[in-house]
Design brief:
single chain; globular; mainly alpha
């Protein structure tokens, strides 16, 4: 029997893990936010192209990320059970999955105009967004390789390197954006033509491949490489590929279901007009940035639940889950309030366009309190993943975001005439539903025997 730990211990351990994860995961969204802001500075049309092209690639990225979450679950459970020698094999198999999935998704992105045309987008918008999808697609294998590496490091409770690498990638992306978005000249000589939204996508893909190679190099040479057999030679974890896929398929589908619903909202905004899709893209980007803190707390919660499962510590599982939810509620109240207190300041970082600003403000007004439920459902789903419970959360996300959020968003935005505020209102209802489903499921799982994945 594991000795019970104090609430302070659980809070500190969660924050110690969550802090670097928040920065690392926020780095992914900060990169997109910088791309969005710098693209918006050259015009609303380019911002609309970038928003529509980015939306499907985010869905694919999160689908791939979900497929790889098994790396974190299996690594944390092995570390909790004092079997670190299995971690290297888990990492190797995770890398192979990252490469295969990334190449497949890069291929999908080459058919952007077909996908966007099938969704009924305006031909001019679809053509501009297609170029963005092409360029972002080439970076998908790189970002998934980095994800596999960072998930391995998080699973062994070493999230700081991933944070440092992502911070460096953001600096690199910022510099590349200056080169590609507005073009580069020396005197009267044009070195790089101004490429607008397409240039932002090129910069992001380059930065993503750099993160992949740096993360691979760090793990290969890290001081604890022999303990985790990252260079091979250790005992293989039994059926690790099958276990990663068994965990990853429902996780990936669950994340895709949620993200695809958000993508559907962006497509709906496209039907409202250029100003609406640009404003909604800004609001969604700000929501995603705030949600990164929930992702960090959720990831830390999932790792701590996984470690407790490896130790067969039911009370540890309970306290890890409840601590994560408490911390995310506090974080979402503080960060979400900025959407009400200073919306013009936040939106002004992206665009000076008054029409775009008005649509973004309406959406943010709804999103401010929504973040409490969005963050809570994110942490609870991660806690369930740490328990190895993956299919039920996926079903819950389908119910919440496709049976509740999407049809309600359409009704509010178009039938009620609420525009972008209506789209965000649909998401609000989905987040409340997802929180209730995941919370009840976590409570139920605490009364079942713990079992490693």
């Amino acid at each position: 029997m594991t000795e019970p730990r104090s609430l302070g211990h659980h809070v500190w351990q969660t924050l110690k893990l969550a802090g670097p994860v928040v920065v690392a995961r926020s780095g992914v969204l900060i990169m997109m936010a910088v791309d969005t802001a710098m693209t918006g500075s050259v015009g609303g049309d380019e911002l609309a192209f970038f928003g529509l092209g980015l939306s499907p690639t985010i869905a694919l990225t999160l689908l791939g990320l979900g497929f790889l979450l098994g790396v974190t679950v299996l690594t944390s459970q092995a570390d909790g059970a004092n079997e670190p020698e299995q971690a290297g094999h888990i990492w190797h198999v995770g890398l192979a999955h990252a490469v295969i999935v990334g190449v497949l998704f890069a291929g999908v992105c080459q058919y952007g105009i077909t996908i966007l045309g099938a969704l009924g987008q305006d031909p001019e918008l679809a053509e501009g967004a297609d170029r963005v999808m092409h360029m972002l697609g080439w970076g998908l294998p790189g970002v998934l390789i980095f994800v596999a590496c960072s998930f391995f490091l998080e699973g062994v409770s070493r999230p700081v390197p991933g944070m440092v690498i992502m911070l460096g990638a953001n600096v690199l992306n910022l510099g590349l954006n200056w080169i590609f978005i507005q073009g580069t000249t020396v005197g009267d000589t044009v070195i790089v033509e101004a490429m607008g939204a397409e240039g932002a996508a090129i910069a992001t893909s380059i930065a993503r491949w750099v993160t992949a190679f740096v993360a691979l190099g760090y793990i290969w040479f890290m001081p604890s490489r022999d303990r985790y057999f990252v260079r091979g030679g250790g005992p293989s974890a039994p059926d690790v590929g099958r276990r990663i896929r068994r965990i990853g398929y429902p996780m990936g589908l669950g994340m895709f279901i949620e993200t695809a619903a958000f993508m559907a909202m962006t497509q709906m905004a496209g039907y409202l007009g250029k100003a609406e899709v640009a404003g909604y893209q800004i609001a969604h980007n700000l929501v995603a940035l705030v949600f990164m803190s929930a992702i960090g707390i959720g990831a830390a919660t999932g790792v701590r639940v996984g470690i407790s499962v490896g130790r067969n510590d039911v009370n540890g599982v309970r306290m890890a889950g409840l601590t994560g939810v408490g911390l995310v509620v506090v974080a979402m109240i503080i960060l979400g309030s900025s959407f009400i207190l200073m919306p013009e300041v936040l939106i002004g970082l992206y665009t000076p366009d008054l029409a775009v600003t008005a649509t973004a403000i309406a959406a943010l007004a709804v999103a401010s309190s929504m973040m409490i439920f969005d963050g809570s459902q994110g942490v609870l789903v991660n806690a369930l993943r740490g328990l190895g419970d993956v299919w039920f959360p996926m079903a819950g996300q389908f119910v919440a975001f496709w049976l509740v959020a999407t049809p309600l968003a359409w009704y509010l935005a178009f039938d009620m005439g609420l525009g972008t505020a209506g789209l965000m209102g649909g998401i609000y209802a989905g987040c409340v539903t997802a929180t209730l489903i995941a919370g009840l499921r976590f409570r139920h799982m605490l009364h079942r025997p713990l079992r490693r994945s």
